[in-house]
Amino acid sequence: MLVGRVLALGLNLVSQIIIVRYLAKSDYGAFAYVYSLVMLFKGLALLGLPDTVVRYLPLYRERAEPGSILGTLVFSLAVVAGVGALLAIAFITVLASGASWLTNDPSVAQLALVLAFLIPLEALNELLTPVFAVFTHYRAIFFRKWILAPALRFGVVVTMVILDAGVLALASGYLVASAIGVAVYLRMLSGVARAEMWNTVPRRAYHIELRELLTFAGPVLVTGLVWLVIESTDAILLGWFHSAQAVAEFRAVMPISRLTQVVILSFAVVYTPLAARAFARDDTDGITDLYWQSAAWICVLTFPVFLLTCPFAAPLTTLLFGERYAGAAPVMALLSLAYFIPSALGFNGATLKVYRKLRYSLAIDCGAASANFVLSLLLIPLWGPVGAAAATCATMVIYNALRQYGLGRFTPVTTFPRSQVRLYLSMLIVAAALFGTQAWLRPGIGGVALLTAAGSAMVGLVALRTLRLESTFPELLRVPMLRTLLRPFMGPA
Predict the structure, then answer these.
(1) Do 408 and 268 contact (CB within 8 A), yes or no?
(2) Which of 85, 194, 341, 367 lies in the 20 to 30 Å Cα band around 309?
(3) Which residues, in sequence order, are CB contacts of 53 under 8 Å at separation 6+?
(4) Distance between CA atoms of residues 439 and 461, nearest Å
């Protein structure tokens, strides 16, 4: 799965760079604006059902209740498809007839007519993914999510460039790719149905625990919408207060800034089960050690990406997107910092959920969404894309401060132990030094690469005691040169 994630990430980044470089800034801005709205509506259409399905289908399977499995599955598919279709119609109606009060760009209405149909299609795609995870069809997920979907979109982008087509062709291609994805998933689902012998279950045996499903789905929906609001509000308000060009600058650099989350998202698959086991054993020392050691590894592995996208945002932005987007460098730097903060602090949110502090988590989720909206309303009219990025960054600071407070109050994990001070201080010093270097010397790409490598190595050496390399990767110390080089920096954590 990790290999698939990396392959998909590479294809998606290449596609993003080609789209931004090829399309006119206004065209890309209009596309990004409408796509942000589509993703927000898609989140509404899901109604928290993907997480609900992955919670209850394994339970019904363990109990040998195929009627409950089929009832839940049919109900979820019908609701998501129906709500998605209704939202698509509402989306078309609002943007096609009222686009003038949402944005001054007339191309938005044309794109809305095409991209609106992505709402039910993308919602169905997201719902079907955990279904295959429940029935351990990981190859289906690997092929459909990590190979087919990015490859189809990459094919759309390449075709657009070869045919010298415009933004409407890109939107149409995305729609076709999503429809193919749903068709492939449904074809695969028929194979699961044969393997599970669902065709032998009479329809009168279908059963839905509606109240139980909706009770679980409600908080999940709210939490999911919080992140959708944070990620979509900025682009929507930029289109409202400014122009498609402002949206283009903001959305062009966002995927690059979010690379600082790749490591923590990959580690999440391993962390949550380990933390849950430690909680079940009442192993307070174990979960504290797991939390801060995983945070240290995430910091060290993510820090090179942070240096490239924050202190060196200016040369990287120009290299990837050209001089047209040089003004987006501060946006990339602020967004990189915003997304690096939760990575650097580790799995505070996941740990709170392991300890079942759902009410507190839900409260700060809603508070973060509200804070982001208010800050965006204040800053975007003044500073445009930079204001949007600043609002996101400030929100992440507040949000993670509240999470760390909750971590110290409601769990045995220390809010910030002394053993981590050297690591975080070293990252702060290196980042500040490279900010100054970029401001005064403006090194070329070769210099940026060398400085990033040197700064990352310094932080890595400082973190060696916390990382416990001798117990995590003992085979490295069997190499005489590495043992001689690293031994002075190693010792008890």
Answers:
(1) no
(2) 367
(3) 72, 73, 76, 127, 130, 131, 134
(4) 26
Q: Mean pLDDT per segment of 10 residues, for the chain of length 493 residues?
A: 73 94 92 90 89 79 84 92 94 67 63 92 90 71 82 95 94 96 89 82 81 75 74 85 91 94 83 81 88 92 96 96 95 97 93 85 88 94 96 94 94 88 95 96 94 95 76 48 48 47
Reference 427, options 330, 342, 306, 331; nearest CA is 306
One-letter amino acid at 171 equals A
Per-residue model confidence (pLDDT) at position 469: 57
CB-CB contact of 229 with 373 (8 Å): yes
**In angstroms, rounded to a whole number, what is the distance separating the alpha carbons of residues 252 and 327?**
11
Predicted confidence at residue 188, as pLDDT, reads 86
Q: Are 364 and 399 in contact (CB under 8 A)?
A: yes
Phi, psi at 48, each rounded to 5°:
70, 10
Q: Where are the alpha helices (DSSP H) in 310-328?
A: 313-321
Q: Return the closest-CA partner of residue 468 out of 421, 427, 412, 419.
A: 419
CB atoms within 10 A of CB 463: 22
Rounded distance between C-alpha atoms, residue 256 and residue 388, angstroms: 16
What is the spatial distance between Cα 109 and Cα 95, in angstroms, rounded to a whole number?
A: 5
pTM of the model: 0.84
Q: Do residues 184 and 140 make contact, with C-beta atoms less than 8 angstroms apart? A: no
What is the total residue count of the chain? 493
CB atoms within 10 A of CB 435: 16
At residue 476, the pLDDT reads 42
